[in-house]
Amino acid sequence: MAGRVALVTGAASGIGRASALAFARRGATVIAADLNRDGAHETVARIAEAGGTGEALRVDVADEDQVRGLVTGIAERHDRLDFALNNAGISGTAGPVAGMHKADWDTTIAVNLTSVFLCLRQELELMSRQGFGAVVNTASVAGITGNATLGAYAASKAGVVGLTKVAAIEQAPYGIRVNAVAPVFTVTGMTEKSMADNPEWARAALAAEPVGRAASPEEIAEAAVWLCSDAASYVVGHVLVVDGGITVGRRPPDAPPVRVDREPA
Ligand SMILES: NC(=O)c1ccc[n+]([C@@H]2O[C@H](COP(=O)([O-])OP(=O)(O)OC[C@H]3O[C@@H](n4cnc5c(N)ncnc54)[C@H](O)[C@@H]3O)[C@@H](O)[C@H]2O)c1
User: Measuring from each residue's beta carbon to the nearest atom of ligand 1, which residues come in under 6 Å?
Assistant: First the structure.
């Protein structure tokens, strides 16, 4: 990926930070965008420590003008955008659909789904000028199988899956590939708090995981970066589930007990 430019949203922590570092390790110049300015700068500092190149930008991906400014700025400074990982997201307020506040729905849809539309639209415009590009959107297993108490989140991620597929077939004739990655239970800021607050919930969630543990952000990042890479040149409109096998089947009841605190391999 040397000489190429990669944009990662939600790059201040978790999957986004791990992906920014993974793109940089492969030689790409990384634009690390996030609402959390300090976190984005910390990601770029880590990239620099490892000998890579990056830029940190504070961007609200749900804001149309800010997203336009983000991609216009990349075009002005770098004159190209090769890879984009539209990854920023929030879990939203947990609770049943019956009784959900519309404001909670609106916020989750804006940050998780409308943002992907806004970013994708600008990224594709720039990529189509160069006739090359690869975009990955971060969906979720929750957008495929559903997830009780996270109605707006699941709907937003199902929307990301649909948008990915439509953009993929529209852009494939023009040398631009669009795919998605669908993680489950990854140890990041989003899940660490719920694991600490509610270890019983975490234990129950992981008890069904065939691999017996949560994913590390790096394990999701590797999948996302691979989808962007030339190694995935024939992969178009795919939703790459990275879930330890949970959507295929539950952990067998006679398997060894799951440890919630186990370090990822
Ligand atoms: N952690 C999991 O188990 C899991 C599972 C499936 C999907 N995902 C998805 O992975 C993506 C990354 O999440 P994560 O787990 O790394 O969580 P995280 O909280 O560590 O990272 C999310 C990042 O997005 C940023 N962000 C939030 N709103 C933003 C906005 N409006 N504009 C710009 N940046 C914003 C946050 O500041 C944060 O740095 C999300 O889309 C999430 O839905 C996570």
Answer: 9-10, 12-16, 34-36, 39, 59-62, 87-90, 111, 138, 140, 183-186, 188-191, 217
CB 27 within 8 A of CB 5: no
Residue 9 belongs to domain spanning? 5-192+213-242
Point out which residues pair with 76 in neighbouring strands. none
* 259 occurs within a structural domain: no
Find residue 84's DSSP bridge partners: 7, 135
**pTM here?**
0.96
CATH of residue 228's domain is 3.40.50.720
Give average pLDDT by consecutive 10-residue segment, the chain, 265 residues.
98 98 98 98 98 98 98 98 98 94 98 99 98 98 92 98 98 98 93 79 86 95 98 98 96 82 48
Atom of ligand 1 nearest to the CA of 142: 6
Give strand ranges (E) for 170-223.
Answer: 176-183
Looking at the structure of the chain, the number of domains it has is 1
Is 132 a member of any domain? yes
